[in-house]
Amino acid sequence: MDYRQRLADQELRRRLAHSGAVVVTGVKACGKTETGPPTTGA
């Protein structure tokens, strides 16, 4: 399955560049796990 860009991706990249670490929280099945690796390069 292809990754679909999320509104939070740009904000996540910006915050990671500034601090080096972030905590992603949200309701179950909202895309937290799928957002991390493509956005961060992990």
How would you portray this structure in words?
This protein is mostly helical and 42 residues long. It has one domain (8-40). The chain is 50% helix and 0% strand. It is built from two helices and no strands. It has helices at residues 8-19, 32-40. The protein is globular and about 30 Å long. The two termini are 18 Å apart.
Globally, the shape reads globular
Main sheet makeup: none
Q: What is the multimeric organization of the chains shown?
A: single chain
Rg from Cα: 10 Å
Strand content: under 5%
Strand/helix succession: HH
Low confidence ranges: none
Considering DSSP H and I runs of 4 or more, what fraction of the residues is helical?
40-55%
What is the typical, i.e. mean, pLDDT?
82
What structural category arises from helix and sheet content?
A: mainly alpha
- Please give the number of β-strands: 0
